[in-house]
Amino acid sequence: MDVIALNEIQAAFSPESALQSIKEGFIAYSKQKVDVPPVGYLGFKEPPGDCHIKYGYINDSPYFVIKVATGFFKNHLVNLPTSNGLMLVMSSQTGQPLALLQDEGWLTDTRTAIAGALAAIQLAPQNIKQIGLIGCGIQARHQLRWLSYATPCKKVSVWSPSLHNSENFAEEMAEFGFQVIPSKNPEQTVSESQLIVTTTPSKQPIIKADWVQPGTHITAVGADAEGKQELEDSLVAAADILAVDSKDQCCDHGEIAHAFQAGLIDIDKIVELGVILDNSDLLKRSSTAVSICDLTGVAVQDIVIATTVYESIKGNL
Amino acid sequence: MDVIALNEIQAAFSPESALQSIKEGFIAYSKQKVDVPPVGYLGFKEPPGDCHIKYGYINDSPYFVIKVATGFFKNHLVNLPTSNGLMLVMSSQTGQPLALLQDEGWLTDTRTAIAGALAAIQLAPQNIKQIGLIGCGIQARHQLRWLSYATPCKKVSVWSPSLHNSENFAEEMAEFGFQVIPSKNPEQTVSESQLIVTTTPSKQPIIKADWVQPGTHITAVGADAEGKQELEDSLVAAADILAVDSKDQCCDHGEIAHAFQAGLIDIDKIVELGVILDNSDLLKRSSTAVSICDLTGVAVQDIVIATTVYESIKGNL
After folding, report:
1. Is B148 exposed, middle or buried, given 0-12, 13-18 or 19+ CB atoms closer than 10 A?
2. Which intervals of the chain form a coiled coil (chains A, B) (predicted)?
3. Does A121 lie in the same domain as A269?
4. Cβ B94–A64 below 8 Å, yes or no?
5. Residues B64-86: what's their mean pLDDT?
6. pLDDT band for position B272 (50/70/90)?
7. Which of A126, A290, B45, B203 has the highest Cβ tally under 10 A?
8. Does A86 share its domain with A30?
9. Are residues B51 and B139 in the same domain?
10. Which residues from chain A sit within 8 angstroms of residue B88, using beta carbons?
11. What average pLDDT does the segment B236-243 reach?
């Protein structure tokens, strides 16, 4: 069994391979060519934290993958990051453990951002004059960098509840060539951007329907559990295109769950990202359309990113 | 994160500590002082195999544990053992991965045998003239050696479907001081033994009620999944003492599930091993009683054995 540290994973990491394999993973998922059982969950009260175990395999793959991801929300008090994690690559031929990827959550952050890039490649409008970010944490950093695969636009407006954090974000992202303007109100960020990514853990809607201009795409990443919400119900209900990573998950506990459960959207209107990725001609957006992609995170992303990294490192061992 | 190989685990392993901690684990389990979610499961068709993920923690413990166990039933064709596995010890304070125990299934085999020893210590009759074993695989080897903590008896009768395998078993166990007689029929093994351990994957009853003499204890280890059965229903129904590692599991898919689901036993008659271990005076067996302990394997055993091994190794790091 190979034990592979984060720096080795990052050194071997090919963004193009990861993008391609996660695209294929979404397609396999939507074709139901995967075996992905319900997510395992452990909760902790004091200090508050949780652990998710996502696992499964793509049919006919020589591997299966088990991902462990933890979030402990008081870790900053002991100078540790909130999130941690690892992935196990196992043989689906013999059950043998093949590799431990000690990615410390980096592969999860990365595969989440790759889904955002894939959504933007498929759904965002042609002319993006400004990218809008709601939230400026770790995931916003990953999302913005991966958006380079979807658009050459480097002009960014960012809003977060903390202007100080937004300013730090702007400074940091400048190193990657982005001109980021911290915004004092989310309405301005939203109304002036054509490609918006939301990455907050908000439990009440931030973006109002009125703010969103025709010809806008929004990727909603923050709402990945019951009770979280970043977009107003009426915005979700009125969207011309409604994409999701997983119909089951998104209708249960994603961004669109609120509007769906309130009976404001028809399930037939919702299209899985894997279906769109498999047939780019399926959806043609008009220049005035508003599109939303709700990403809750599916185990198939973990499975393919771990497998891709393992194969790339194995080739070099 | 420490990565600990099987030989290091075995070198640091203290049988007495493990016995004591698993005893405490069963007690905590029966007092519902544990958080142990349903077992995760993945099945594979070609080659046939499965993977079980058991995880959880004992309340107030600084650790939680995730165990991965695989069984691939054609592995002998590629000269690999059927079973494999590993355990992850994680911090319940920060979510950080602390150790990977590469035990290859050894800790699972061991914790299963320790449960057998604990059952025999509590439930077996005073005078054991002969130990009877039904099945002679890896788990039978572990069970027999651990029975030394329950009885000084070294005389053993073993029956398995293959006399050749029984003979190999007898030869191997002689090295540990056991006088093992391979038996040509299970009736003889059962009727002449006072402490019986069954470890076969049988799907139909092997031991008939008529064979079992008064004053016998049987620990049934083999039936750990739906459809498996080693003891006749009427034997289970007529037992004077009926112990289980987990009421929920045993009534659902353990040895006693068949008799229970047929309405032959009252749930109030079934006592959890953790309850008995917590109060040794609870059950007093008469000299003619027949007792049965059904072991399906509970995650708390994995949790405590991994934790105990990790703490012992950490002390030496």
Report:
1. middle
2. none
3. yes
4. no
5. 95
6. very high
7. A290
8. yes
9. no
10. 68, 86
11. 96
**According to the model, what pLDDT value does residue B282 have?**
83
Q: Is residue B117 part of a domain?
A: no
pLDDT tops 90 at residue A186: yes
How far A304 CA sits from the closest chain B CA (Å)? 17
Q: What is the per-residue pLDDT across B145-182, written as a single tens digit (0 to 9) for each? A: 999 999 999 999 999 999 999 999 999 999 999 999 99
Contact at CB, A88 and B75, closer than 8 angstroms: no
Closest residue of chain B to A70, computed from CA coordinates: B95
**What pLDDT, in 10s, does the model give residues A124-148?**
999 999 999 999 999 999 999 999 9
Q: How far is CA B297 from the centre of its chain?
A: 6
Check if A90 contacts B (Cβ < 8 Å). Answer: yes
Q: Do A86 and B86 touch (CB under 8 A)?
A: no
Asked if residue B317 has pLDDT above 70, the reply is no
B45 and A CB contact within 8 Å: no
Convert the pLDDT of each residue in A45-79 to its tens digit.
999 999 999 999 999 999 999 999 999 999 999 99
> Can you tell me which residue has the tokens 């008529």?
B210
- For residue B58, the chain A residue with the least C-alpha distance is A44
Measured CA to CA in angstroms, residue B124 lies from A29, B23, B48, B120 at distances of 53, 16, 38, 5
**Number of residue pairs across A and B with CB atoms under 8 Å?**
110
Do both A164 and A194 map to the same domain?
yes
Task: Among B54, B58, B74, B93, pick the best mutation site for testing chain A contact (most A Cβ within 10 A).
Answer: B93
Same domain assignment for residues A285 and A304:
no
Tokens of A220: 């909603």
End-to-end CA distance of chain A: 12
Establish if B66 touches chain A: CB-CB under 8 angstroms.
yes
- The token pair at A89 is 């690559």
Distance CA B103, CA B94 (A): 24
Residue B67 inside a domain? The answer is: yes
ipTM: 0.90
Q: Please report which helix (H) or strand (E) contains residue A65, including its range.
A: strand A63-72
Whether B89 maps to a domain, the answer reads: yes
Q: What amino acid is encoded at A7 in this protein?
A: N
- Structure confidence at residue A283 (pLDDT): 82
CATH number of the domain to which B28 belongs:
3.30.1780.10
Query: In terms of domains, do B44 and B167 share one?
Result: no
Q: Residue B175 burial (CB < 10 Å; 0-12/13-18/19+)?
A: exposed
CATH of the domain at B153: 3.40.50.720
Enclosing domain of residue A305: 2-107+300-316
Contact B84 A78 (CB under 8 A): no
Count Cβ atoms within 10 A of the Cβ of residue A196 and give its class: 0-12 exposed, 13-18 middle, 19 or more buried.
buried
Q: Does the structure show a pLDDT above 70 at A316?
A: no
Which pLDDT does position A303 carry in this prediction? 98
Q: A102 and A58, same structural domain? A: yes
Q: Based on the fold, state whether residues B312 and B270 are members of the same structural domain.
A: no
